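Table 4 source record.
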Amino acid sequence: MKKLFKQKLKIVFFIVCAIIFLFFIYAIYIPKSPSDSPLVVYTIQKGMNSKSIAFDLESQGIINNSLFFRAYVIIFGQWPSLQAGSYDVSPSMSISSIVKKFVSGDVKKIYITIIEGWNLQDISEYFEKEKLYLKTDFLDLTNPSTSSGQGKDWSQDIDFLKDKPKNLTLEGYIFPDTYQIAFGLTLDKLLETILDNFDKKLTQELRKEISLQKKSIFQIITMASIIEKEVILLEDKKIVAGILWKRINAGIPLQVDATINYITGKNDPGVSIKDTTIDSPYNTYKYYGLPKGPISNPGMDSILAAIYPTKTDYWYYLSADDTGKTIFSKTLDEHNIAVTKYLRN
């Protein structure tokens, strides 16, 4: 009788274990909501343990039971491998799928696009509009001289910034491109990514050429930032670069409208006489040579134009209209005729 009872007890125990096992498998591999559910962003903070993560997922309605989540990551030894970051998850995902995502570090990605010719102010407004970063945070972190105390001297660790005056911002060095970044990436890390991209674009061959010309990277980027705002087409950029470098060598003021617009914050195709008298180191009507620093963040075409200008007999140019057409002149008389023809009609 006792033997029969033990056998029955074993059978019951086996059945119970089988039921628990099947229920565990069901809970692990079957999502809370089999139908499509909207994705939500869940963030694992650094230092969070599996208990906190499991509780969060259950409280947010993403999984049914935190106990099964914890059991799964412990049984399969996954809990040390859960990576911090922000993830797209939903109740339509099983616990095993969610854990797999957390272990692989498949964080949520977003894209940001910095347009050629934008200045730091433009970029900061874009970031704030897209709810990525606060405008003030970006402007502070790119300005080593900010009064907020949040500024950073990036030139300490980055070679191509060594010849940039330490008190100037990163204007000119925020390379225009589309960047794929992790959701929630810190502003510090984003700037590191952007500057690393700039570092790769400015090849050793280009740096050698700049050195052979006895120019600095800072001078090239400053010139490129002007060209970016003044001209659209690559061949025209190279001609304009040749004109501007020639004016500098001849001791003639650059008289570039884009530098005045940088001072005033306007975007006037033709600046006023009053504005050209503003006392600013960026005023190329008032002061000879390049402005104090870059006035925009130039793209690769403008940088190449600044390094490899086209030599011509031209001394003057103007942008005729929004089509990108540039009119070049050899003499002041020719230039004045072009101004009358294209800008005063």
